[in-house]
Specification:
531 residues; 2 domains; mainly beta
Length: 531
């Protein structure tokens, strides 16, 4: 049973501790500009977007989903193989059409009403006496001679009314009257851009509705063999036309010119199926073979989302909701994608071996992560080659050599290098002892023998309990070999090691006011030599 009300956006927090999310705070870009979250010095460090995937077992219906739309309350509706799925953020409900066929298309008008196109059926959703949405058929409003038709592949809203497009007829519902247009042979898939309906036929190519007449678009005959043109607003004077065989084009009403992109080969190979103009000015292009590509207005690839990113490869619908997330109707479920977003995620697919993330630290421009299974650094030059796509450097984590990926690691500290001013060195506290990291490799500063030395936390100069100068405190667990846990006022600390430059003689001194259960300070000489 559904619960009417506002759609509660799922909080895609990392439920499993085996992932890491990174954020950047930037203002939204103006319309048509490059997305802010994709520019700047840290853009190359972005991981994959948060993806929440809904599977057939979640919504209780078959795998294929053909359309997605959101009503004015925020409730989501999905065109599925057995009807319309309703989702309020907590509960799913199935709304069947009378002939129990596939729902191919959905659209919302200015008043918030959801219109539905199925196989041999068309209509809309309206609440019953209990407030639950039910399907209302408009088939009895269709002239008797025109009631035999197949899939309503597109349901589209324009200022002139609601269009329902099937191969046999084009219907328009307006003012309580259903008007019908017939093709010469059959209609191709229709689309709407800037309130104008576009539709194709094998004989004339791409046409548009002008008043009550379908008129050929200048240069549109070149699309006579294109059964499902993707038509998207591009700017105030032009539309973007996407094809399966020939890539993308710009049409200005007088002529059509090619729109070259970085993904032309990929588009031809992967079978372009749907497209959407996104709120941040980018364009989503969904395919039935290679997932989805997001490009900017200049044709540059911004993001590629496929099965490796948690999104399917065969996509039938793409829709941007009012919260700014992107929904993909798939052959295999449904996905809600947090893109564009200042947040991205790294997990096993990004090179992290799993386990918990204890500390994130930037040193000398490189991002390091301490986990329960080793230490990792973020590399932004990992080449990823996909057929038809430009060569990309994708951000991914790799283990730091010299530290086992089976060892718990807890903390980092950057300290001044005693061998020279302006230099710094990176230390890592691990279950195998204290290590110094130089770039992508590490060497031990003090190793653990039989679990005797397992630093859990590092403090730098300027900490109240430390003397001034170039020094570092290493806090150890209370019980040798146990899971380190820092308790209030450090009562669980076994001892504190003060690491200082080689001017220190290395002798022990009483702790006095230091909160240390063993009442000792041990000096550890930090080598002045580079690794």
């Amino acid at each position: 049973m559904s619960r009417p009300g506002a759609f509660l956006v799922p909080l895609l927090a990392a439920a499993a501790v085996s992932s890491l999310s990174l954020a950047a705070s930037q203002a939204p870009p103006p319309a048509g500009a490059a997305p802010a979250h994709l520019s700047g010095p840290r853009a190359r460090e972005a991981g994959r977007p948060f993806v929440h995937k809904y599977l057939p077992k979640d919504y209780g219906a078959p795998e294929q989903n053909w359309a997605v739309v959101q009503d004015n309350r925020g409730v989501m509706y999905v065109g599925n193989n057995v009807g319309v799925l309703e989702y309020d953020g907590a509960y799913w409900r199935l709304i069947r059409v009378p002939n129990k066929t596939v729902v191919r298309s959905l659209a919302k008008d200015g008043a918030g009403r959801i219109y539905v196109g199925a196989v041999g059926e068309l209509g809309y959703l309206a609440p019953d006496g209990s407030g639950n949405m039910q399907y209302v058929s408009l088939l009895d409003q269709v002239p008797a001679d025109n009631r035999e038709f197949a899939d309503v592949w597109r349901t589209l809203v324009t200022p002139e009314g609601i269009y329902f497009q099937s191969p046999q007829y084009l219907f328009r519902w307006a003012g309580g009257r259903m008007r019908v247009w017939k093709p010469t042979t059959r209609f191709y898939r229709a689309a709407v851009a800037d309130g104008t309906l576009y539709i194709g036929e094998p004989e004339t190519g791409l046409m548009k509705m002008v008043g009550d007449s379908l008129q050929e678009v200048a240069g549109g005959r070149q699309f006579a063999d294109e059964p499902r043109c993707v038509v998207i607003p591009y700017d105030k004077d032009r539309i973007l036309v996407g094809t399966r065989a020939s890539g993308l084009f710009l049409a200005d009403g007088r002529s059509i010119s090619r729109f070259p992109t970085e993904i032309d080969d990929w588009l031809r190979e992967m079978d372009l199926y749907r497209g959407a103009d996104l709120p941040d000015g980018t364009i989503a292009l969904a395919t039935t073979g290679g997932g989805m590509a997001i490009i900017d207005r200049q044709g540059h690839l911004i993001e590629h989302l496929d099965a490796s990113a948690g999104v399917g490869d065969s996509l039938y619908a793409v829709y941007s909701d009012r919260q700014g997330a992107l929904w993909a109707g798939m052959d295999g479920g449904l996905a809600r994608i947090e893109t564009p977003s200042p947040l991205s995620v790294f997990d096993r697919t990004s090179g992290l071996a799993g386990g918990s993330v204890s500390h994130v630290h930037r040193h000398a421009g490189t991002l390091y992560v301490a986990t329960s299974r080793g230490v990792y650094y973020l590399s932004t030059s990992n080449p990823v080659l996909r057929s038809g796509m430009p060569r990309q450097g994708v951000a991914a984590f790799a283990p730091v050599a010299g530290i086992s990926t089976t060892i718990q690691c807890w903390w980092f500290l950057t300290v001044n290098d005693p061998s020279g001013p302006g230099r710094s060195r990176l230390l890592a506290a691990t279950g195998d002892g204290l290590f110094e990291i130089d770039g992508t490799r590490a060497v031990p500063v003090r190793e653990s023998v039989a679990g005797s030395f397992q630093p859990a936390f590092l403090l730098g100069s300027g900490t109240p309990i430390l003397p001034s100068g170039r020094s570092c405190a290493v806090l150890l667990a209370a019980e040798t070999g146990s899971q380190p846990r820092l308790r209030p006022r450090m009562r669980a600390i076994h001892h504190i090691l003060i690491m200082q430059p080689d001017t220190v003689d290395g002798s022990a001194a009483p702790a006095r006011s230091l909160p240390c259960s063993m009442n000792c300070i041990r000096s550890l000489k930090l080598p002045a030599r580079p690794l």
